[in-house]
Amino acid sequence: MPILEVKNIQKSFGKTEVLKGLSFSLDKGEVLSIIGSSGSGKTTLLRCINFLEIADEGEIYVNGKRIFDGNSAKNLTDAEIRDNRLHFGLVFQSFNLFPQYNVLQNITLAPSLLKRGTEEEIKAKALALIERVGLSDKINNYPCELSGGQQQRVAIARALALEPDILCFDEPTSALDPELTGEVLRVIKDLKSADSTMIVVTHEMEFARNVSDKVIFMADGIIEEIGTPDEIFLNPKSQKTRSFLKKDIETNG
Amino acid sequence: MSFQQVSLSLAAGFLENCRLFLETLLFSIPLGLIISFGSMSKFKPLSFLIKIFVWCIRGTPLMLQLFVVFYVPGLLFGVPMRNRMLAALVAFVINYACYFSEIFRGGIESIPRGQYEAGQVLGLTKAQIFFKIVLLQVVKRIVPPMSNEIITLVKDTSLARVIAVGEILLAAERFAGKGIIWPLFYTGAYFLIFCGGLTILFGFIEKKLSYFKA
Lengths: 253, 214
Ligand SMILES: Nc1ncnc2c1ncn2[C@@H]1O[C@H](COP(=O)(O)OP(=O)(O)OP(=O)(O)O)[C@@H](O)[C@H]1O
Ligand SMILES: [Mg+2]
Prior knowledge:
The complex is a heterodimer of chains A (253) and B (214).
Chain A: E1 4-13, E2 16-26, E3 31-36, H1 42-49, E4 57-62, E5 65-69, H2 78-85, E6 88-91, H3 103-113, H4 119-132, H5 148-160, E7 166-170, H6 178-193, E8 197-201, H7 205-211, E9 214-219, E10 222-227, H8 229-234, H9 239-252
Parallel strand pairs in A: 3-8, 3-9, 6-7, 7-8
Antiparallel strand pairs in A: 1-2, 1-4, 4-5, 9-10
Helix pairs in contact in A: 3-4, 3-5, 4-5, 5-6
Chain B: H1 3-39, H2 44-58, H3 62-77, H4 84-109, H5 113-121, H6 126-156, H7 168-177, H8 182-208
Bound molecules: adenosine-5'-triphosphate (ATP) and magnesium ion.
The site of adenosine-5'-triphosphate has 11 residues of chain A, from strand 2 and helix 1.
């Protein structure tokens, strides 16, 4: 049974149709990369999956259980939406760390508020996560004292602290200086070896090619092409995919 | 008139200023917060009415509002205001709540949406997000404009003399009536010392909050 199944998701803002019916599924431990040009709806898709936007139509299943149905979306209570969100974690392009909390507090805040164990358990787990993202020497630092790459690694640890079924990334490295993208991508790669299930929206084609099990190419609010990295990068079937990849090679070498 | 006698008499007046100052703060800050939530309400008629009200209060002199609160109940309902201090307090609270509400609204609206969304994807409730994530960032941002407004309030309290509240300037004017002018200038010292203390306090708060950037 797939850990995540998305069926026919649709979303419009006013008259603009942004997502025009997308379906895909993801197995436990798989990494899905989503690529596509600007404005194709990648962020909107992640936001619908994380319930930051409520899709107009479609269904979402996690572990076989339907957690979203467009027909009854209006009846979702705040509490149900919060419960649904906890299946997912989201790492933002702009980190969005809480500036008044230090690294440790950023990670422990949500688990303590959600009463996910005793304070000692929560702290021990947070420290382990901080070590995993390589920031053990920054535990007491505030976000303004960290580089972008370090902030993004804290954001990843913060999302992991709630043990989401699926961790989503929205262009996790595109706000970073080129020399800092490596350290963040390395952390994501490590997570893959630890069998985390992930969805990564990215412009890093090398990364998508080497790390993912599945790649989706999005264009104009639909899935133009879905396949293994080899299928998408070596043998793209769609003309749109081909010209997108060609353009990417021209601009990024 | 000895210097000491004048000092004591002015101090008694200044006590009224301090009382008006503290009570105004005590009531206008919570009221301002409520008004700011109202002005941000998604229920358009409410936010519209509140914006009109804030516009009226901020667009007319506080002195006029003092007269309105003091005289209008008597003119309209035949129940004259007897308690001058209470009338002054009501006018000050309404006036300052409106100014504060605009500062609060600006502060709350300046917090990036990403802060709310980061809290949302961590499964936090609206209240948890407001109190645990947003509030301190808002406080940090509004300390400078609030300290300006609060220091203005100290000096505005002397306006209460227009409805004959026995505050420090009224006390000094009594001396002036008897031909002794210097106490009038001497009142400045009281305000200067009080505002100096407040400036130090706000500097301290700003420094306390300078450990993070928001
Ligand atoms: N809240 C919104 N209101 C109106 N339109 C929106 C909103 N959010 C997104 N859109 C529109 O939806 C379209 C898709 O936006 P989206 O951010 O999902 O694209 P994207 O694929 O993530 O692009 P990028 O690569 O630039 O991040 C865009 O045309 C955008 O203008
Ligand atoms: Mg995007």
